[in-house]
Amino acid sequence: GSGVQWHLHGPGFSETIHGRKHWVLYPPEERPEYDLDYASRHWMENTYPLLEDWNEDGVDLGMEKKKHDEFARGWKKKRGINGSMQGGEKTRKISYEGRVAERGPSGKKPWECTIHRGEMIYFPDQWHHATINLEKYTVFVSSFTTEHEG
Hints:
By secondary structure, the chain is α+β, with helices and mostly antiparallel strands. It is built from three helices and nine strands. The strands form three sheets. The chain has a four-stranded antiparallel β-sheet with strand order 1-8-3-6, with no helix packed on it. A three-stranded antiparallel β-sheet has the order 7-2-9, with no helix packed on it. It has a two-stranded antiparallel ribbon with strand order 4-5. The radius of gyration is 16 Å and the shape is globular.
């Protein structure tokens, strides 16, 4: 299992062209506890088994979406990301480290799925995610987009 360590960024899509890729994701208000000196496989083998299952608490998916939307609105507002101009350019330059540090690590298991050849995943804005390749060779394409408030 090679893969990509935990990170976050703007919204986008990822399609698996060959092989299978396992995704683990946390909403913005949660964050995984990890060490950048170790690969995502190390996290899955050593940290994942110690985490609580979301289903034990009966997660309300509507409430999770509401919390995500509220976080995204507040995050954008704090950083002036609404098309306003500051210093001659849009304010999309972000310090991820400072924002991640202000939230404590999640004790819950991540949302997860496996994307097979020809399948696609959408990852929302500022969701923490990591991947593990489940085949010897995995080929994927990622495209990034912007979300618009309607």
